[in-house]
Amino acid sequence: MVTFTKDSEKEIIIKQYWPQIGRAASGYENRSALSDELAQEMALSVWRSLDRFNGQCSINTYVYRVIHNTAIDHIRRHSKLSEDELSDKTICEHTSPEADALQAQRQKHLMNAVNKLPLSLRQVMLLKLEDLNNVEISDVLGISEANVGIRLHRAKEQLTKLLAGMN
């Protein structure tokens, strides 16, 4: 059993996963103030849950599971939207001001398309964009690996159609 007995150990985990927490928060909540609130909720949930981490899965999978569950709870409390109307974001690297502007435009189109995906597809895309493999996504969401693959395929198909319609 793995235990995090010191607050400094928990702080290290929170710092390590803070970028992922921020991206996940903005992926599940597109309202800026609520996204910031959700990121704080996620970090606090991870902090509190580390005492219960028993090593049955990787710390990476465990943290994403906590983040996911916190997001779902947040959505149920704060959103009047159905679960099929939630959002997801991606973070891309930029190399020049021109590339930044072009990438920002592409990212805006992508976000508009992703915002139209059902929650079940957005969830797998969000985790895939965080570089989790299908096994880890399966563990986080509690679905089969086959289901992860199907959802990813459907999400990509829908995103392709949505992005083609935006041009």
From TrEMBL:
One of its GO terms (biological process) is DNA-templated transcription initiation. Keywords: Sigma factor, Transcription, Transcription regulation. It holds the Pfam family Sigma70_r2. Residues 110-159 form the RNA polymerase sigma factor 70 region 4 type domain. Gene3D superfamilies: 1.10.1740.10, Winged helix-like DNA-binding domain superfamily/Winged helix DNA-binding domain. Residues 14-79 form the RNA polymerase sigma-70 region domain. InterPro entries: RNA_pol_sigma-70-like, RNA_pol_sigma-70_dom, RNA_pol_sigma70_r2, RNA_pol_sigma70_r4_t2, RNA_pol_sigma_r2, RNA_pol_sigma_r3/r4-like, WH-like_DNA-bd_sf. One of its GO terms (molecular function) is DNA binding. The keyword Glycosyltransferase does not apply. Belongs to the sigma-70 factor family. ECF subfamily. This is Sigma-70 family RNA polymerase sigma factor. The lineage of its organism: Bacteria, Pseudomonadati, Pseudomonadota, Gammaproteobacteria, Alteromonadales.
